[in-house]
Amino acid sequence: MKTSRGPADLKLLQEMNRAKVLETIRASGPIARVDIARQTHLSPTTVASLVSDLIADGWVRSVGEGRSRGGRKPTLLEFNARAGYIVAVDVTDSYLTTALTDLNAQELEQERTIPHQLAGDALAERIGAEVGRVLSTGGARELPVVGIGISTPGLVDAGAGVIRYSLKLNWMDLPLGPALAQRFHNPVYVENDTNAAAIGEKWFGAGRPFANMVYVSIGSGVGAGLILNGEVFRGFTGSAGELGHMSIDKGGERCECGNIGCLENLVAWPAIWARVTKAVKRGVPTVITEIVENIDQVTPEILNKAALAGDQLAVNALAEAGVSLGIGLANLINLLNPEAIILGGSLLGEKSFMLQHVRKTMATHGLKVPGAAVRLIPNQLGEKARLFGVASIVLHNLLATKFWPSFAEEIAEPSLAGENQRAGGVAPDSTPPPANYENGG
Ligand SMILES: [Zn+2]
Questions:
Q1: Is pLDDT at 260 greater than 70 in this prediction?
Q2: Residues 119, 186: one domain?
Q3: Sheet holding 213-218, edge to edge
Q4: Lowest mean pLDDT among 251-260, 286-295, 328-337, 414-423
Q5: Are residues 389 and 374 located together in one domain of the fold?
Q6: Ligand 1 centroid vs 83 CA: distance in angstroms?
Q7: Which residue has the higher pLDDT, 70 or 85?
Q8: What's the CATH number where 306 sits?
Q9: For residue 226, how far is its CA from the centre of ligand 1 (angstroms)?
Q10: Ligand 1: distance of its center to the CA of 276 in Å?
Q11: What is the pLDDT of residues 240-255, one digit of tens each?
Q12: How far is the CA of 242 from the centre of ligand 1 (A)?
C-alpha cells in the first residue's frame, strides 16, 4: 500500500475535499463551518480554507449568524444556487419544453412549451434553436450557463450524448449532445425520458429517501427508470428498464418490438384506449358515451372516473390492465427488491382505480418479503420530473467529485466541445426525506 502522496494526488485530494464541502453545504445548508467539519470529517482548518475559496469563487455565500454554542455566533453558509444557470430541455412526441433553471433546478418559470409535429433533422434543428433562444435571454447572459440537459424518448447512449434510436422521432444514431456542445460551448447531457424522470424524482421529488427505487410510468408506452444504490442503472447497452417489453403473455399480440405478449400492449394507454373504443363500437353500454361526444376522445382521466363510478366497461378495462401491470411489477420486485416504486402517468395518479388491481395482483404474484417491504408512491413532480431530472444531471456532474477538476476551468472559459463524453450518472445524496409520503405498501 502506498503511504506517500505526490503533488498530483494532493491536488486531487484537495479537489475532492472541496467538492465534498460544497455538496455538504448544498444538501445541509444553511450550515456553520463547525458542522461542515463534523459531517465531512475534515479538520476545521481545512474546512475554513476550502470555504473561503468557495466564497471567493461565488459558489457559497454567508447568510447570517447561527445560534451561539458557548462562543462567538457562527456564520451560516449556503450554496449559491444563483452562481450559474442550467438549460433543461424536455423532448416528447408532441411537445418541446425548454427551461432556464438555477443550480437547484428551480426557477422553472421561464419554461416554454411548444407543440411540434417535427421529427428527424428538423426536430434536432428546432431543439438547437430553442436552446439558443434560452441562452440569449437576460439571466443566461449575466451568469454562466454551466450545462445543458436534454430528456428525449428512445434508446440513448448517455455517455456519448447520442440518441441511438427513436422510432417516433425518426432518429438513428443522432449525436445531439456533441453537436450542441460544439455549437454552444457548454457541456451537454442527453438522457432517456424515463431515466430523466426517475432522476428528477430521486433528487427533487418522491424518491428522495430511497437509494433503490424504480420509477414506473404508464402513458403512450410503459417504461421504468432504475435507481440502484443511488445511481441510475442503464445496463450494458443503455436499454435497462424496458418494463414495457417484459413478455407476460405467451399467447399475446405481437408487439412493435417484434416479440409477443409485451406488457406495453396490455397496459399502455393506446392499448387500453383501443379496447375501450372497440367495445363501445361493438355496442357495449357505458356512461362514457354520455361524457364525450365521440368515444375516440376518451382520456385516462375520464375512464378512471367512470370506473370509480362503477361503469362496467371502464371497470373491466382498467381491472384487466391493473392485473397485467401487477404481474409486471411483481416480477420487477422479485428481481430487484426495491425500496419504492414511484408511479407516473395519469392512470396511476390520485384515486387511481387501476392501482387497486395492481396492488391486489402484486400480493398474489410476488414474493412476500420484498412485496411487503416495497412502497408504491405517487410521483411528486408530474410532467416536470424530466426537466428536474436533466437539470439534476447537469448539477451533479458539476458537483461530482470525480468531475471536479475541470469544473473551475469550465466556468472561466466555457469552450467544451465533446464535454458530453462525461458520464451522466447521479451520485448518492443525503437529502432528507419529504415530510409526508404515502406508504402504499
Ligand atoms: Zn415489445
A1: yes
A2: yes
A3: 231-232, 222-228, 213-218, 340-344, 375-378
A4: 414-423
A5: no
A6: 45
A7: 85
A8: 3.30.420.40
A9: 19
A10: 21
A11: 999 999 999 999 989 9
A12: 9
198 Cα: distance to centroid of ligand 1 (angstroms): 21
Work out the burial of residue 282: count CB atoms within 10 Å of its CB; fewer than 13 is exposed, 13-18 middle, 19 or more buried.
Answer: exposed
Chain segment 306-333, per-residue pLDDT in tens: 999 999 999 999 999 999 999 999 999 9
CA of 371 to the centre of ligand 1 (A): 25
In which band, very low, low, confident or very high, does the pLDDT at 263 lie, cut at 50, 70 and 90?
Answer: very high
Tell me, in angstroms, the distance from the centre of ligand 1 to residue 188's CA. Answer: 30
DSSP for 385-438, please give it: HHHHHHHHHHHHHHH-GGGHHHHHHHHHS---TTGGGS--------PPPPS---
Q: Are 194 and 215 in contact (CB under 8 A)?
A: yes
Choose the final residue of a domain: 61, 79, 97.
Answer: 79
Cis peptide bond N-terminal to 434, omega within 30: no
Whether 19 and 404 have beta carbons less than 8 Å apart is answered as yes
- pLDDT value at position 16? 82
Distance 249 CA to ligand 1 centre (A): 11
Assigned domain for 117 exists: yes
Banded pLDDT at 6 (limits 50, 70, 90)? low
Distances (CA, A) of 130 to 104, 126, 149, 369: 22, 6, 13, 48
Domain coverage including residue 14:
9-79
> Ligand 1 centre from 154 Cα, in Å?
14
Tens-place pLDDT, residues 274-286: 999 999 999 999 9
273/179 same-domain check: no
Q: How many domains does the chain have?
A: 3
Give Dmax over CA atoms of the chain in angstroms: 82
How far is the centre of ligand 1, averaged over its atoms, from the C-alpha of 355 (Å)? 22
